[in-house]
């Protein structure tokens, strides 16, 4: 049985990935999921060591690449991402496996085949606390076929991923269905997006709601990050829609959105892990 550690902050995405892995001919033991860099580091250091890591790129407290700055990883890594415009190119150049979201069964099957080809000569993961990127061990040093995530590669990938995508790549409008009709909603008329009962809804500035065929994670990659922020798992809001911000319990922040979301959703909170990033986003 192979141990797979899932690092994914979208519960639905994590459950789908786990379900797909458990359908494979190779038996998998699912570890995690970890929802943040900090949780992933803690799980890697605590053990048991996984045979493969499935890493989402953008997590609640930063980029998953940042965990390589804190622990040494010698097992195969499969990155999962909705960002095919720039991240995937970097993965290909550096021979790192990736799965482009939404992940389908055939992609998982092919990834497992690649994993099986590597495992006979790859050692199990060995994780130790690190003081800097420069101590990352190359694959050859560890007797493994896993691509070496050396300091230069990590620095280049982090720089590339932290750069905003070209403005032209962001969505300028959404096509939604209203009865038997299609309606175009310019992105300037979007107040926020929110998840409700496994459905993603667009809340417009004029108080109307529309169903959109995107996950919250996909929307993060489609919208201008200088204008929209992922407050939590369920809400992705435009700055202009945030009418007020209030200190909440456990070092969290409560946002007052306009138009107001359904009362059933409760207070719209910014989690502790995101408070610092959220403040920086507001104070840019």
Topology:
Layout: E1 2-7, H1 11-22, E2 28-34, H2 37-46, E3 52-56, E4 58-59, E5 62-63, E6 77-81, H3 87-93, E7 97-100, H4 105-118, H5 151-162, E8 173-178, E9 181-186, E10 190-196, E11 199-204, E12 209-212, H6 216-222, E13 228-230, E14 235-238, E15 242-247, E16 253-257, E17 268-270, H7 272-282
Please give a structural write-up.
Keywords: DNA-binding, Phosphoprotein. Residues 126-145 are annotated as: Disordered. The strands form 5 sheets. Strands 2-1-3-6-7 form a 5-stranded parallel sheet, sandwiched between helices. 32% of the residues are buried. The chain folds into 2 domains: 2-162, 3-Layer(aba) Sandwich (Rossmann fold), CATH 3.40.50; 173-282, Beta Barrel (OB fold (Dihydrolipoamide Acetyltransferase, E2P)). Helix content is 26%, strand content 29%. The chain is built from 7 helices and 17 strands. The N and C termini lie far apart (48 Å). It is of the alpha/beta class. The chain has helices at residues 11-22, 37-46, 87-93, 105-118, 151-162, 216-222, 272-282; strands at residues 2-7, 28-34, 52-56, 58-59, 62-63, 77-81, 97-100, 173-178, 181-186, 190-196, 199-204, 209-212, 228-230, 235-238, 242-247, 253-257, 268-270.
